[in-house]
Amino acid sequence: MESYNEIKHRQLQTMLEPIREQLKQYSPKTLCKNTMASFDENEQNFCLPSMGTDIFIHYPDFAIKQELDIWHHLTLLQYLGTADGTPLSGQWISLQQMPGGVTRGRGFDKDIETMFDRYFSNITAAEFLARCLLLGGKELRGRADVEVVIPYAPMFPILVRFWESDDEFAASGKLLVDRSAEHYLSIDSAGGACSAVIEAIRKL
């Protein structure tokens, strides 16, 4: 009988294979232009910064050697295949405001709110901020106790807003994406990227 990890690995490979085949139609030059990744011709590796870490993706099989969360692994390859180089707008929107997000995005936004309550009820704003900074986050001044932009990918920043719990309210939070997000990830993939960010913060 397959173990949980074996089943997870098999499912991951099943989802990754079509994406890898799609990516083979693009040249390294085109992918770098569209995604802001870099390419080492000697090592035949793309370098894609993500959440404070350089992720290396081998060419031409598009294999990622580093151990990543399943959604992190999957969405980074989807980012490579979807990106078209559209400039960032500097305007933040919720997932439900993305094209196709009226139903799917609203569900993701609610799931994210639940994850904040479940994972961060006993964490201070200072500790939450410290974790975000370890992921390459840049602190902003805003309405929340903590407001940080985390670079999920070079052209896919995610704005994290966090309110710590107090005597009246549980911990809460929201994740927002740039209005250009649809040019880099689909609504489902964007939801996966946001989930990966929360998981990364939780595990620190």
Could you please describe the fold and organization of this structure?
It is a single chain. By secondary structure, this protein is an alpha+beta fold. Helices cover 41% and strands 21% of the residues. It is built from six helices and eight strands. It has a five-stranded antiparallel β-sheet. The protein has a three-stranded antiparallel β-sheet with strand order 1-2-3, with helices on one face. Strand 5 and strand 6 form a beta hairpin.
The neighbouring-strand order within the major sheet is 4-8-7-6-5
Order of helices and strands: HHEEEHEHHEEEEH
Q: Count the helices. How many?
A: 6
Which percent bin holds the helix content? 40-55%
Task: Give the structural class.
Answer: alpha+beta
Largest sheet: 5 strands, antiparallel
Poorly predicted parts: none
Quaternary structure classification: single chain
- Average pLDDT metric: 92
Shape: globular
Please give the number of β-strands. Answer: 8
How far the N terminus sits from the C terminus, by CA atoms, comes to: 33 Å
How much strand content do the residues show?
15-25%
Gyration radius from CA atoms, angstroms: 17 Å
